[in-house]
Design a protein that fits this description.
By secondary structure, this protein is of the alpha/beta class. It has a single domain (2-216), classed as Spore Coat Polysaccharide Biosynthesis Protein SpsA, Chain A (Alpha-Beta Complex). Helix content is 35%, strand content 26%. The longest helix has 17 residues, at 219-235. The radius of gyration is 17 Å and the shape is globular.
Length: 236
């Protein structure tokens, strides 16, 4: 499995709230968020890991350039206007098989993630598997509409009786890259529009429920994520 991390945001909200460290280097239970993801990926049969970093984040650039991994580690330094544009910059590292993409501030239970990856590895019928959760602590959640077999049939801005929201962890096949490129060529700029286009393009997507997925957007989110990770580490 190839893995990719989007870490090209500016982290402006955290900076405004007094957090001086760049978001990827914020520590949860003693480990930088970007390193936590890398280690989780290595523990889940990573064939390669690719990351995109904002040009202004010199500390992050120095940090990742100093990492020595036992798998190919591709680093792109480029500022982009959106996560979808960042995905576009990483796409050529993801063309040779199934891949998993997420943003650097996505926090989840590692055991649930491993089961998710195993399920996607074993899946021969679908073009993608999306992490979803019924834990909603997001300013603008993207609701996921599924049928009785957990096939994804829509992505909505409003709940409309949907039980799940997108968790921001995307397992896909290279077929999705065609949709990504078409979205960029059409002037689209948001990941949620890319996800909607996947459905429009008739890609078969499965929803995989997680008990909880957190995003670190604000200073108070760091405390929530820290406690979540600590609790999971104690149990393990």
């Amino acid at each position: 499995m190839n893995y990719a991390i989007i870490a090209a945001g500016e982290g402006s909200r955290l900076a405004q709230e007094g957090i001086s460290l760049p978001k990827p280097l914020v520590k949860l239970d003693g480990k930088e968020m970007i390193r936590r993801l890398i280690d989780i990926f290595l523990n889940n049969n990573a064939a390669s890991i690719s990351v995109i970093i904002n040009e202004e984040m010199k500390e992050v650039q120095d940090y990742v350039s100093g990492l020595k991994l036992e798998v190919p580690f591709n680093i792109v330094v480029k500022s982009t206007p959106s996560s979808m544009h960042s995905f576009f910059e990483l796409r050529n590292f993801l063309r040779d098989g199934k891949f998993c993409l997420t943003t650097v501030d996505t926090v989840f239970d590692e055991e649930e993630f491993s089961r998710f990856i195993q399920a996607f590895d074993a899946d021969t019928k679908n073009d993608g598997m999306m992490a979803v959760t019924d834990y909603i602590d997001d300013e603008k959640p993207l609701y996921v509409k599924v049928d009785e077999k957990m096939n994804i049939i829509g992505f909505l801005d409003e709940a409309n009786d949907c039980n799940y929201i997108s968790g921001g962890i995307y397992c896909l096949t290279p077929k999705a890259i065609d949709t990504l490129e078409a979205c960029l060529n059409a002037g689209q700029s948001r990941m949620r529009n890319f996800q909607r286009q996947l459905v429009t393009d008739n890609l078969k997507l499965k929803a995989y429920p997680f008990s909880k997925i957190l995003d670190v957007d604000h200073a108070e989110d760091i405390k929530k994520a820290e406690q979540f990770v600590k609790n999971k580490n104690v149990k393990n």
